[in-house]
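Supplementary Methods, section 5.1.

A reviewer requested that the exact input to the structure prediction be made available. We therefore reproduce it here, unchanged from the version used in the analyses.
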Amino acid sequence: ILSSVLVLGSLASCDSETIDEKLKEENLESKSILRFVLNDKVTVVSEDINIDWGTSNSMILTAKMSVKNDEATTADTKYKKATLIIHLSQLAMANYPTIWDMESPSNFISSASLIMNELDEDGKPYDETYSTTNGPEGVRAGYANITSIVEKARTLAGDFEYTLYPPEGSIMMTQQISDGQMHYIKY
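The structure derived from this sequence is encoded token-by-token as follows.
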């Protein structure tokens, strides 16, 4: 009986305690995380994320990562170096489609590029750039959403999905990014 009273007393005292300031979201020190699924097969995660500012207060998110190579023939080619770049027209909680149209008549717009280290037919590495801007004109190639901005901590969160096209004339296939998520991205 005594232990039950002590447990109930400790639970009741928790209700009346104030929240420690360190536990509030704007004060948390967290690693930036960006993750997505590439071509419905490979989950890619990056903690190496950088934000730069472009013209007219646009934001450029750059994430460096390694992507598992399904066509690897040696241990050296098991992973490909890659960089994902997402360009957002400004920093605001909003939806950022890849084209302006009547469905999304806002001033928010985005584009994305994935630079992947590929191997040519002789086995020599080269960088191939897949981009939303390489796609057919007037076709939506995805979006990004900023769903949360914590100004005091200077972090943002959101999600994204993109179809990335190789340059015209390339033999490479279109890359599909789905289930993209950003957490604690420092700006």
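The longest strand covers residues 175-186. These observations are discussed further in the main text.
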